């Protein structure tokens, strides 16, 4: 699916939607497309880097732990002079484990994604609904 810019909502909101292919390399491809959007939004380099990191973590979690398909919604809003970027990844919910967890997983390489999201976001959470599960984070963009 190509980037779809939806009609801007009230209060200066802009939204882009990306479909996440469930294949190796998908996160890198989506990151390149998100980087272009963030550049168009004229975010500071630090803010753009934080948003890209959150995008990477939430998308990777969707590929590794959830059921496809997954969709990324990236939106920007301005309310009362304060800018916010919202990253939301929706999938069909948690995947059932295909095999018992590997005991040799290196804790230095796995398990920190949501801690990173929590550290960077001003607000974040999970919303279960009839269409699946959405993991979201909001970051200040000013």
Helix content: 25-40%
Q: Could you give a short account of the major beta sheet? A: 6 strands, antiparallel
Low-confidence parts lasting 5 or more residues at pLDDT below 50?
A: 1-11
Q: Report how far the terminal alpha carbons are from each other.
A: 30 Å
Instruction: Count the DSSP helices.
Output: 3
Q: Can you write the helix and strand succession as a string?
A: EEHHEEHEE
Q: Given the C-alpha coordinates, what overall shape results?
A: globular
Features:
142 residues, alpha+beta, six-stranded antiparallel sheet, 3 helices, 6 strands, disordered N terminus
How does the SSE layout of this entry go?
Blueprint (H helix, E strand, L loop, with lengths): L3 E2 L8 E7 L5 H15 L4 H21 L4 E10 L2 E10 L21 H8 L2 E7 L2 E9 L2
Antiparallel strand pairs: 1-2, 2-3, 3-4, 4-6, 5-6
Helix pairs in contact: 1-2, 2-3
Written overview of the protein:
The structure is a single chain. By secondary structure, the protein is α+β, with helices and mostly antiparallel strands. It has three helices and six strands, in the order E-E-H-H-E-E-H-E-E. It has helices at 26-40, 45-65, 113-120; strands at residues 4-5, 14-20, 70-79, 82-91, 123-129, 132-140. Strands 1-2-3-4-6-5 form a six-stranded antiparallel beta sheet, with helices on one face. A hairpin with a 2-residue loop joins strand 5 (123-129) and strand 6 (132-140). Helix 1 packs antiparallel against helix 2 and helix 2 (45-65) runs antiparallel to helix 3 (113-120). The protein is globular.
